[in-house]
Amino acid sequence: MKIAIASHVVLDTIRDTKGLITNSLGGPACYCGLTARQFGFKVILATKVGTDFPQENKIILHNNGIVIEKYQIVESPTTRFQLVVNNECRELFLYSKCAPLTVEEIRKVQTDCWLISPVIDEVPFDVLTAIVNDRGDRNFVMLDPQGYTRRICSSGQISLLDNLTIDLSGITAIKADRGELGVLTGGLEGLAGMQFLHSVKGIEFVILTENRIIHFLHNEMHYWINLKNIDTSDSTGVGDILSSAFCCACIKEKDPLWAICFGAGAVRAALETKSTGLNKIPSKSKIEESASYYYNTIEFKSTVI
Fold it and tell me: How far apart are CA 99 and CA 51, in angstroms?
């Protein structure tokens, strides 16, 4: 099976909670892509990097079955972020950003499903529409809206928009954190915001990550999984790992409940590595082990009154 990921490859400088600095490949293109490889998917990137992108990083991706094509290397600099990880939050700073994707580039892609996860400005709304209109052979489009909800301050620091109007028609699944949910729904929180995306916007699967709880809304049932507190110095990329694991499992297993358990299992397995950057990508066996546990402990309640 093939999964196409629309997102720029990123070069991250990560300062973790212990003050250690790591330079790492990053961004959803890498975290989602390498997770999808664990599920046996062929990964197609809709991405761009600059001529400054190191050759050794191309080799790392190639050795893991992910290829950056020659036409995806452009004159604009590679997208770069600095991430400062604190105990309960993280600060994000933009150093440079690469050129955006185009509709023509998207139309070249043949895939079973799409995972759209912009980091900053690289998936314009016309490209989003083009992806939705050509949804892949499995008719499945998952969106992580993080890049759409961000704004750049004069210092380069990234903050959240107050509100965003975006056409979400045709999106099959969405994953958002608490802040992103509020931006997308005009300030709604929790289950109310999830129901807005499900009932008003027509999104079949809605995932909300909030305070070590993964919420899932599908077919008027609210499910939630409680994650244990895992002491790790870097949680960068775990949201991308969740999105990819859910998307791949949903396509392969055809069981949304199993899919969200795989997503939660991937998060737990990644955090338990206690590694930095891409080194936290978990193995399929570790994901399955945690997914089986969550499948037997997941809590749920009908949203129908």
Answer: 12
* Cα 44 from Cα 112, distance rounded (Å): 10
CB 34 within 8 A of CB 270: no
> Locate tokens 């790790």: which residue?
232
Which residues lie across from 301 on neighbouring strands?
A: 222
* Nearest alpha-carbon partner for 234 in 23, 59, 32: 23
CA–centroid distance for 297 within its chain: 25
Query: How far apart, in whole angstroms, are the C-alpha atoms of residue 234 and residue 280?
Result: 9
| DSSP helix/strand/coil, 203 | coil
Name 140's bridge partners: 113
SS3 106: helix
CB 60 within 8 A of CB 25: yes
The one-letter amino acid code at 80 reads: R
Task: For domain 2-302, give its CATH number from 3.20.20.70, 3.40.1190.20, 3.40.430.10, 3.40.50.300.
Answer: 3.40.1190.20
- Threshold 0.90, pTM exceeds: yes
How far apart are the C-alpha atoms of 2 and 114, rounded to whole Å?
9
In whole angstroms, what separates CA 275 from the centre of its chain?
A: 18
Where would I find the beta strands (DSSP E) of the chain? Answer: 2-6, 10-15, 21-26, 42-46, 49-50, 73-74, 79-85, 90-96, 113-116, 140-143, 150-152, 158-160, 173-177, 205-210, 213-218, 221-226, 299-302
Locate the domains of the chain by residue range: 2-302
CB-based contact 97:69 (threshold 8 Å): no
Task: Yes or no: say if 109 and 123 are a contact pair by the CB < 8 Å rule.
Answer: no
- Checking if the pLDDT of 94 tops 90, the result is yes
Quick: pLDDT tens for 30-68.
999 999 999 999 999 999 999 999 999 999 999 999 999
Task: Take residue 232 and report the two structure tokens written for it.
Answer: 């790790």
